[in-house]
Write a structure and sequence with these properties.
CATH superfamily: SPOUT methyltransferase, trefoil knot domain
Distance between the termini: 38 Å
Radius of gyration: 18 Å
Strand order of the largest sheet: 5-4-3-8-6-9-7
Number of strands: 9
Largest sheet: 7 strands, parallel
CATH class: Alpha Beta
Structural class: alpha/beta
């Protein structure tokens, strides 16, 4: 049950329920046929199935062209991944590769710029980087980051400035920030 909330500045507002959100987005078939952004997401050896599921949800929301699941990264069919991804697996194109380097080389042959989300001595603040499509964003393992071989093949490196005690954000959170920046017009 949703209630109306009184707000001095906004007047009366109501949270939207699932049915209202679907109605607001429009027909699911029209949404399925909507063009995708020329943005790819490469997951390099992501340990947590929950992070993978969260990135499927974000990739769906951002209309990412395709997700590449590499190495130890969880990939369908897996009930725990499907549960975390909340039905987005069936709407986001994806492909599994054993080796991240193979994906990067394949995309570069198609003139896709490959950008690593990684803290390096050459990283550019993600807000200052010029995202030119087609582009692939590589995110890495929660502990080790992007593998050295894959990192060496990237065209550029971006990072998210940290203003607190922690030296990084969760990989799924970071991916969401970068994907939304990459799809900006």
């Amino acid at each position: 049950m949703f209630c109306r909330i009184k707000n001095k500045e906004l007047g009366t507002m109501k949270k939207l329920n699932t049915e209202e959100l679907i109605k607001r987005k429009g027909d699911l078939q029209i949404l399925k046929n909507k063009p995708r952004h020329e943005v790819y997401l490469i997951l390099d050896n992501i340990r947590s199935v929950h992070n993978v599921g969260a990135m499927f949800r974000t990739a769906d929301a951002a209309r990412v062209k395709k997700i590449f699941l590499c190495g130890i990264t969880a990939h369908p069919p897996r009930p725990d991944l499907e549960k975390t991804a909340l039905q987005t697996i069936e709407h986001v194109p994806y492909k599994y590769f054993e080796n991240t380097i193979d994906v990067i080389e394949k995309l570069k042959k198609k003139n896709v710029s490959v950008v690593a989300l990684e803290q390096t001595d050459e990283s550019i603040d993600y807000n200052k980087f010029k995202y030119k499509k087609p582009i692939a964003i590589v995110v890495g393992n929660e502990v080790e980051g992007i593998g050295d071989g894959a990192l060496a093949l990237c065209d550029a490196y971006v990072d998210i400035p940290m203003h607190g005690v922690a030296n990084s954000l969760n990989v799924a959170t970071s991916a969401g920030i970068i994907l939304y920046k990459a799809i900006e017009k």
